[in-house]
Amino acid sequence: MALQDEDTVSNPSNNPTLSDIAEIDLSRRRAMQGGLAAAMAAAFGLPAFTWAREAQIVPSAGLGGGGGPLLGFGGVAVSTDDLVRVPAGYEVQVLYAWGDPISNGPAFAPDASNSAEDQAIQAGMHHDGIHFFPFPKLGSGLSSTHGLLCINNEYTDDGLLHVGGMDPWTAEKVRKSQNAHGVSIVEVRLEQGAWHVVRPSRWARRITGNTPIKVVGPAAGHDLLKTAADTEGRRVLGTLNNCAHGRTPWGTYLTCEENWNGYFSKETGTPTTDEARYGINKGGFGYRWHEHDERFLADLHPNEPNRFGWVVEIDPFNPRRIPEKKTALGRFKHEGAMVTLANDGRVVVYMGDDERNEYLYKFVSKNKYKPGLRHANLGLLNEGTLYVAKFEAGAAEGDQQGTGQWLPLIHGKLGLTAENGFNSQAEVLVKTRQAADRVGATMMDRPEWIAVHPETGEVYVTLTNNNRRGSSPASSNKVDGTTTAGSARPPVDEANPRASNVFGHIVRWREAGGNAAATHFEWDVFVLAGDSANADPSKQGNVNGDDFGSPDGLWFDRDGRLWIQTDVSTSTLNKGDYANLGNNQMLVADPATREIRRFLTGPKGCEITGVVGTPDGTSLFVNVQHPGEPASERSDPANPEGVSSWPHSQGYGPKGRPRSATIVIRRADGGVVGGA
Ligand code: FEO
Ligand code: CA
Ligand code: CA
Ligand code: CA
């Protein structure tokens, strides 16, 4: 049977439908909800809150770990080498680097002479969130040797991207920079002992800063989204600053717009309070697009910024399907979109707003996921309730655990009224930050990725760091929404317990009744990151195992190992408080014992961000972002290899300039990556 969907692209591979992929993806969780979860709830008297229940999460309880220890590898030491290092018995292969063609197309030019047109069909820059969508296997099950990789290309280093960097600055360079943003979809296959990008591929696709995208959900067509070029407010060009990601049970990819404000400039006059709340100002982050593309001049096109800051849904299996900005999920600096299911089948999406003292959100769909009804499922993220988290101290003060509530952001409730500046649900969603200010959400230490344990449903979030807390005088995001982004200086609280939190931490919570749609939860601090050798006790952390700081990427594998990736900024890497911690890295935590062991260290000047495995767990895809980034965060075009020559230094591609890349990690013995 051939798969045929609504836009008439058929699956040529005579395979099960994509809904089967969804079913398999969630089978563990469903089994859990039907059996073990109920037994555990009874045994431990839920909702009485105790992390002693963790004892049930060891692999021998049925998580597929084969009965051995969850962390089955020898940890690696910190490193400042210009190489990816992994444990003994593991192999690293570079698969897909900035500038590589996505299909048959122009090869990467190591002198950066590829045109804007070339760049639109090559790998973008600064790989971030990633998901592997396996093809169904002939017969049954999912392939672990053939699938589609969706990869975010978050932002650009324009010192590296162009011949001569930003001098001179031209319209062609702006277009090339826009084309190096967005998402890559490439077909990959394991054959003859190595992974390859399949070229040519009918699935290969780039979505860039100029790709047409439909606006859907409650804010679609609202006046605040209308521009001179789009008088209907329903069609945006491009997606930008695609940071972390999500995937749905129905086989689509979610890409999240994070620091989109940085592309706009308000050249004249003062930013409005709404612009200031999202950090729009003169010059932005120095991308200078507005000099050659007036769309990014907020003075002339004040509604264009309202068209960014959303989660975008992409169907990787249908290259002709137009991506959609999902306005029901709110507008902020979206880090990621972790999708799970409520007990009744409604879809729940957990999301962080990554800026100092911003909030944690979740969306609960109105309608239920229906296995096999893909067309209906494609609309599930268009209607539902958006909530924001409030963390409370709970029964005892100072024990780094407590209770919490999900506060609904619904027009007409909790002060989200016309007299407070919210005339409709569409306005609540366009001004999500201001709505969250109004209802009294908890300011967090930069929420980054979120991961849901595959069996218990417990939710973990990385809070990467925050240097704007605990100072005097204290200030909070104002209830009237007039705070300039990132300017508050709140006091510490139990969920964000450290002033000047330079190393970050991980918080986890359990929804009431184990139901992801619940409006109450209980939480604790999973780990305070740090350097145990730091002279300042407040910076030593409480890591059981290998020290680290600035946790960002977070992902649970099929066996319940929690993979943690770090994003220490290149301005602080390997010096000061971070002098002992080496290059950015990836570690693995055992949620039951809280042991954390270092698995990978990256090359010089990189961030490690984005990780996903094949269904059988034997291949792990990881992204190395911006190797060679100098402390100034923009490379010197006269000396592009001043910091790093990776991945050339690891045997991949020509010498010339460092390149973000997707790598694959496998075990020499073919076993499960990370396992015993
Ligand atoms: Fe793009 Fe918050 O990291
Ligand atoms: Ca408490
Ligand atoms: Ca991140
Ligand atoms: Ca980051």
Structural summary, described in words:
The protein has 676 residues and is mainly beta. It is 10% helix and 28% strand. It has a nine-stranded antiparallel beta sheet with strand order 15-16-18-19-20-25-24-23-22, with no helix packed on it. Strands 10-9-14-13-12-11 form a six-stranded mixed beta sheet, with no helix packed on it. The chain is globular, with a radius of gyration of 23 Å. The chain starts with a strand and ends in a 9-residue tail after the last strand. The structure holds MU-OXO-diiron and calcium ion (3 copies).
The total count of strands amounts to 33
Please state the CA-atom Rg, rounded to the nearest Å: 23 Å
List the strand order in the largest sheet.
15-16-18-19-20-25-24-23-22
Number of helices: 9
* Shape designation: globular
How large is the share of residues in beta strands?
Answer: 25-35%
Structural class: mainly beta
Major sheet attributes: 9 strands, antiparallel
Bound molecules: MU-OXO-diiron, calcium ion
Roughly what percent helix?
Answer: under 10%
| Termini Cα gap | 39 Å
Low-confidence stretches: 1-65
What do the pLDDT scores average to?
91
